[in-house]
Amino acid sequence: MIHPPFVPVRIGQFGATLLIALGLPAIFLPAAAAQPAPAAEAARDWPQVELDRPWIYRGSDVPPDPEWRFGELANGLRYAVRFNEVPQDQLSIRVRIDAGSLHERDDEQGYAHLLEHLTFRQSKYLAEGETIPRWEQLGATFGSDTNAETTPTQTVYKLDVPDVDSAKIAEVFRLLSGMITAPTLSQEGVRAEVPIVLAEKRERGGAALRVAEATRQTFFAGQKLAVRAPIGTEETLQAATRDKVRAFHQRWYRPQNTVISIAGDVDPAVLEQMLETHFGGWKVRGKPVRAPDFGKPAASPDALMAQGALAPVGEVRILVEPDLPRNISYAVLRPWQQVADTIAYNEALLLDQLALSVLNRRLEARARAGADYLAAQVGQDDINRSADVTFVSITPLTEDWQAALADVRATIAAALDNPPRDDEIARELAEFENAFAIGVETSAVQQATDLANNIVEAVDIRETVAAPDTVLNVLRGMRPKVTPDAVLRHTRALFAGTVLRALMTVPQASQADAATLRTAMLAPVDAAAANAEAKPLPSFADLPPLGKPGKVVEAGAAGLLGIETLTLSNGVRAMLWANDAEAGRVSVRVRFGNGYGAFDADSAAYADLGEAAIMGMGIGDLGQDALDRLATGRKLGLGFRIEENSFLMSAETRAADLEDQLYLFAAKLVQPRWDENPVLRARAALGLSYPAFATSPQGVIERDLEYLLRGRDPRFQRSTTAQLDALTPQGLQNVWEPILASGPVSVEIFGDFDRAQAMAALERTFGAMDKRSSTPALPQLSVLPVTGGPPVVLAHRGDANQAAAVIGWPTGGGREQIRLSRQVEILAQLFNNRLFDAMRERLGASYAPGVRAQWPLDREEGGMIVAMAQLQPKDVPAFYEEAERIAADLAQTAPAEIEIARVTEPLRQLVSRSASGNGFWLNQLGGAARDPARFEQVRSILTDYSRTTPEMMQTLARRFLGDGKTFKLSVLPQGQSGASDVAG
């Protein structure tokens, strides 16, 4: 059953969110995990109940979602289609092939992924090199609207087509059917595409990949998953031939192995007819081949049982990675088993997740209170039809990893010894019910892309889909079964299994070995010491008022959509737009102060630390834990980031919680709390993660590029671990206390709420604040980088065959030229397409080179057109030559209309689709309560991004790309001549 992704519940596809939260390697994400069966196998493998039910519900008593229409073509292809208007006029199509890396033979490793590339290269109705341009002409941007992914057990082709009409729909299905059923698999295509795949493999290498591979090899030892990665091996890819790839395609690309899900603003009957017309005649010679056996986890007979895990300890491994923080991951594995996705099964899954939520809450509480670990989390998922796994991930706070491991194991052991308290269960149930209720409230605005993905992911894990109200009813119906003893039974089952395996990453080999880790896993722990104490849940009704409520003294229409601006009696400005475009959702943003303009060179180091810690420090008498308890069963948030000229607090809430959300934000400014622990924890997290930037060229770019593009502005320099150690909680308070207390405030509320109630809530919260003093911004520290000289050369400590290169041309900045900035974006996209063709298609030197336009709206200069690519070190000079050649050509020769259309049509469609959501308007109009000119600037956005001329593009290219003065950055392997470890 599919459930909305709001809480850590692994029902249906939601396991992805849980594992992302765990920080586990991508190999374990359900996007790379499947338990599907072809339609031909469904009757044999699935428990057959009510055979007249739609195919996805056979074997289940889950009520079918009436919004979907399910069907099967005569050739065995299964489909699901539904009408959806979010966004309007869009069609989202997913084609899932039951073939991934686990289906490959030993000499075919990487073929499932290579075939995905070749499918996009040339097919029945698309000649060599036509696929991407043709989809762009139809308004679909390559990489976002047109994409594919290959995992251990599936290949999924994804297509989101905007602005559809009958002619475009027919063309989309014709082209897509040709790609799937009849790709042109030529020897020339294989020779051209293998270097691109190898570039992708190279660019994904480094420390993170080594950890992912070591984890997979350790946890799934003895199973096929341990030695199969979708990218393949260089040896098998280099040996790929047309005939071998064709054989793989014929074996697995069959209608019986295919599921197509479609959601969009089209009559489902039309979609069914299109499927029949374009896929109904698909036939493949030969009999379907059954999926290979993926194996089961097994333990050696002499393995010993560990306390806190009801499974014998098997393989343990130490991985030395000098630039990564210490991490301990262990997994309790059980054989994967096919189940019937019934209501009873989902009730059991909910009990599993409730047990994990109680345990994770305890682990987080101990970390906040000063445990020996920085972070720890537990999760469960079924992985690649290979194992049912409970994962534990621990990041030790110091070198004393044994203490961190013992602390976490003690907390788990306590949960295995004693049932949870009633108040713990009630809290998690309230969180679950709130999340599922929100799913019902917002069901009318589910995105077509998400709906289409849901079907694929449900098939992938052999489960059903359910309407949001069904999900909520299942939870409510099982409440009598949720007892402390039931939760205890499920907790114990989660930590019982065939074998426990562990991997630890350490920066130095002297810090641990396999024997030490095994001993630590088997050592006894004091479970009693880990028991949590009951704490009462606070209530908003118990919180003190922020002051005497103010009044709205001025209100007026903005002249755009239905937006209005308000001024409160204390000077706070507000921008409100009550609309039902996203039913059940309210977006709140609060802007205050001067953003990065509040920091000088001396206080710059506290910017990042404050951004990470400030919201976790609580308000008034309430610390972080109390705020979490206060929010139980509510939709409240405390997002925070620093922008160029303001600080931004943000949250997604709903009308019923709007006033309390406003109270939290206002209280952060009026009654800030200065707890030390959140600062120390944030400082530790930043310090532990800093060395990891050096493990790859991309990491170095993430660390230093913005700093360099801003002329070495100290506010954008990442603090080293040693520099962070010198920062203190008192120092942070000294910097941030005046920031929170001064500067103008504006509140932005867009969404589904009652206007009168929102205005009253504003008067009682932000209107109750004292008038704030204005604080002028400090002198601007960002300047243009030096151009025209040799490249800045930095070093990374990753693989020796990895490098990256960046080249940039200064443009401009400022809101007064916002329309010009949008035309510059078109120029950058033209540049991007040419660079993509040159570096990927012609040279095979880079998997995904890219060009972007940066035009700071809140600075008068500093914009750049920036091109970058990951490469082999030897190809860096070729990248600079190619980029400069393209820049010169754009300046010398106006691009053709057809080339411009490849860019402007996707941009037009992107703006049109985005404009249906409140997030788009908040992004475009943020700050307009104090700067009404922004209302006018947004009116021309669609035209500015979608209309231009060859002459305009050439003029801009001459102006910004024509003088040859560039900024260059090369990131090379450590030890190469001229490479520096840090941008000083």
TrEMBL record:
**Stored Gene3D superfamilies:** Metalloenzyme, LuxS/M16 peptidase-like
Q: Quote the InterPro entries the UniProt record gives.
A: Metalloenz_LuxS/M16, Pept_M16_N, Peptidase_M16, Peptidase_M16_C
Family, per entry:
Belongs to the peptidase M16 family.
What region holds the Peptidase M16 C-terminal domain? 240-429, 749-900
The portions of this protein that span the membrane are none
Q: In the record, which residues are listed under signal peptide?
A: 1-33
Report keywords, A-Z. Answer: Hydrolase, Metalloprotease, Protease, Signal, Zinc
Please report the name of this protein according to its UniProt entry: Insulinase family protein
From the UniProt record, list the coiled-coil ranges.
Answer: none
Identify the residues that the record assigns to the Peptidase M16 N-terminal domain, covering every copy: 86-203
